[in-house]
Design a protein that fits this description.
Two copies of one chain form a homodimer.
Chain A (H helix, E strand, L loop, with lengths): L3 H8 L3 H8 L8 H14 L5 H7 L6 E5 L5 H16 L4 E5 L4 H13 L4 E5 L6 H16 L3 E5 L7 E5 L1 H14 L5 E5 L5 H16 L9 E3 L4 H14 L5 E4 L2 H13 L9 E3 L16 E3 L2 H13 L8 E4 L2 E4 L24 E3 L10
Parallel strand pairs in A: 1-2, 1-3, 3-4, 4-5, 5-11, 6-7, 6-8, 8-9
Antiparallel strand pairs in A: 10-12, 12-13
The structure holds a DNA duplex.
Protein name (chains A, B): LacI family transcriptional regulator
Keywords (chains A, B): DNA-binding, Transcription, Transcription regulation
GO molecular function, one term (chains A, B): DNA-binding transcription factor activity
Chain lengths: 366, 366
DNA sequence: TACCGCAAAGAAAGCCCTTTCCCGCAGGGA
DNA sequence: TCCCTGCGGGAAAGGGCTTTCTTTGCGGTA
């Protein structure tokens, strides 16, 4: 590997001058020398050693992000928002997949700290696990004490800057929607119980049902992995145990897609016999059949906001931004079969989906 | 930030000893000192500066990957394979999204070189662009000359180690499949013409049609972005110009999903009036309706093989591994409406899909 | 002619680690 | 008793770059 001194030697200048030319220092360099340096760079195919640069420069410029899995559409969208703002500000993004392993999250915090990132963003659900939460907070606090910035997305447990999707209201909205359609026998296909995302969404849903005089007993909830196969398995278990269900609420879109697949394999018509709802409004939600009624979260916006918080030290105390959820009605929901309402209901233009925008504030369930 | 000397001072030892304790050097250290160092590390929440470590250590351990977009399922699967092998060998992966921008690809090669990666893997289609290809090869060669390893996935243009999905045979298989179903009026929804992936798949398809006495004129091909919206737009244009089509071949699954959406919006029954095929067999292909008939590529395997090539210097010349494509028959294809064959054909169990495995070797189109 | 000031280039001091080399010491063999 | 060996620990030399500080050389003024 050619080094800076190689370049300097070949150009007949000092390393200092070569450095100044190469990274456009404010110090002026004669046109003659500048040219010689640039020619040497080209001749030697010189690329600066990033580690040496990062070591020599004092200011930290990269930003670290810990997500569950970038290839999961939920996090892919968030990452898109993060990336946009980071790129605008000339920051490099280091993305780490934790695959929802708490230990790996802790390791990645250390790794990012070791890489001298300017900020760490933790995206994705928190855990109901006091021990882990404590350890994580210790690490993050230690990082903040050395000047690092931290922002979280959708996590209650850290006390700093945060962007929170309104999961609870989202659950409430979808519950209200189903009650309005006359559903009383509602089952839930939930993600891991240990995730706060699961419990938040569930709490909102339960609040809505309670408001409408329905209940949500534990045996109508099945917990599984937050993915397609988890959704299919949970739906199968649920239907076997509760054949009278008229609606299945999946707590994210992947699980809902699994639910749809399972129902199709059992030839259960959706939404005529069973309605299905998702959560998140992943892009694919409009392309499955029937197109998925779901709760939309402004994922890209969430990422963008979080990065903005992370990069702006801010003045006062911790800032928390709650972003509203909204229902997107598509074709996977219909009136409850027993409700006596008309069987046929107008269907949307394929894939478009009318959005029902609602302010989160003022409609939050009690 | 606490440094190694801080730790050493607090433990009352030299930095050398502290270093040896912290990264488990082969040199033995007394239990007493070891404990003191570890306690100092814990007290100070010390994390080694990764850049300093990387600079001081000579051996390069990270591996760089350049993909179009990790959140695109095609690349997500490949990345999974890459990651698996990398993790097994204790390598860190640096993933760069080029978003199919050639200039960005070049920049990322430099970036990765600057980060002293042990190998660079370029995943994804090459370009029909001699100037770019030349510049890329120059950069890669310069990198290889300094001891770096290079492997490519699905690119003809670089002469080193390569993993090649058999796109041409895949196109041929899907063409043969449609001909067997009696389709004669076949349109193609293609990705960008500048990508070798597009032209390879197209070439195989064309070969199959020619073998069956059909032709594929240019006006039955529409080029667009390799995504859902590109697929929808291209399908719309194609149908407007060629209303008699009985089959739409999309050159990847995302485009096929766009095609399905467009056909649904026009109330064209699939496959009764028009058959649709995809390419890649992304996970979602089985969950759209009708489930997508497509060409399966062993994406995870491709990633794993590429990483293996990249990490193993190998003995002789460049190694090229061609991985076979296979047709996955699902519900989006059926007999051509005019072909006089039975309208009803057996349907697969939802989502499963019978796979037709074929060896690539020996069946390659002329 | 002597001096001053300024601009441009170079010297050198880090940045934080790893690792080689060297030293001191204790134990064992001659 | 002396020397050699082996082991644990420290000193110090990088690794490649940035940046401050210093030097050099020039034009301009007194």
């Amino acid at each position: 590997m050619a080094t800076l001194s190689d370049v300097a030697r070949r150009a007949g200048v000092s390393p200092a001058t070569a450095s100044r030319v190469i990274n456009g220092s404010s110090k002026p360099v004669t046109e003659d020398l500048r040219e010689r340096v640039l020619r040497a760079v080209a001749d030697l195919q010189y690329v600066p050693n990033a580690h040496a640069q990062l070591l020599a420069r004092s200011h930290r410029t990269a930003v670290g992000v810990i997500v569950h899995d970038v290839s999961d559409p939920y996090f892919a969208e968030i990452t898109r928002g993060l990336q946009r703002v980071a790129t605008d500000q000339g920051r490099l993004l280091m993305i780490c997949n934790s695959y929802r392993d708490p230990d790996r999250e802790l390791e990645y915090v250390e790794l990012l700290r070791g890489h001298q990132v300017a900020a760490i963003i933790m995206a994705g659900s928190g855990y109901h696990d006091a021990t882990f939460t404590k350890r994580l907070n210790e690490k993050l606090t230690a990082y903040e004490e050395t000047g690092g910035r931290v922002a979280v997305i959708g996590r209650h447990e850290h006390s700093g800057d945060a962007v929170m999707p309104d999961n609870r209201t989202g659950g409430w909205l979808i519950g209200t929607e189903l009650c309005a359609l006359g559903h009383a026998e509602i089952g839930v296909v939930a993600g891991p119980e240990v995730l706060t995302t699961t419990t938040d969404r569930l709490a909102g849903l339960r609040a809505a049902l309670t408001e409408h005089g329905r209940s949500l007993p534990e045996h109508r909830i099945r917990y599984a992995e937050f993915d397609r196969d988890g959704g299919a398995a949970a739906t199968a278990a649920l239907l076997d145990a509760e054949p009278a269900l008229t609606a299945v609420v999946a707590l994210n879109d992947s699980m809902a897609i699994g639910a749809l697949a399972l129902l199709r394999s059992r030839s259960v018509p959706v939404p005529q016999q069973v309605s299905v709802t998702g959560f998140d409004d992943m892009p694919i939600a409009r392309d499955v059949t029937p197109a998925l009624t779901t709760v939309r979260l402004p994922l890209v916006e969430m990422g963008a906001r979080a990065m903005a918080l992370a990069l702006d030290p801010g003045a006062g105390g911790p800032r928390v931004e709650v972003l509203a959820a909204e229902v997107v009605r598509r074709d996977s929901t219909g009136p409850a079969p027993d409700a006596g309402t008309a069987r046929v209901r107008p269907t949307n233009q394929a894939g478009s989906g009318r959005r029902v925008r609602r302010a989160a504030a003022g409609r939050t369930p009690s």
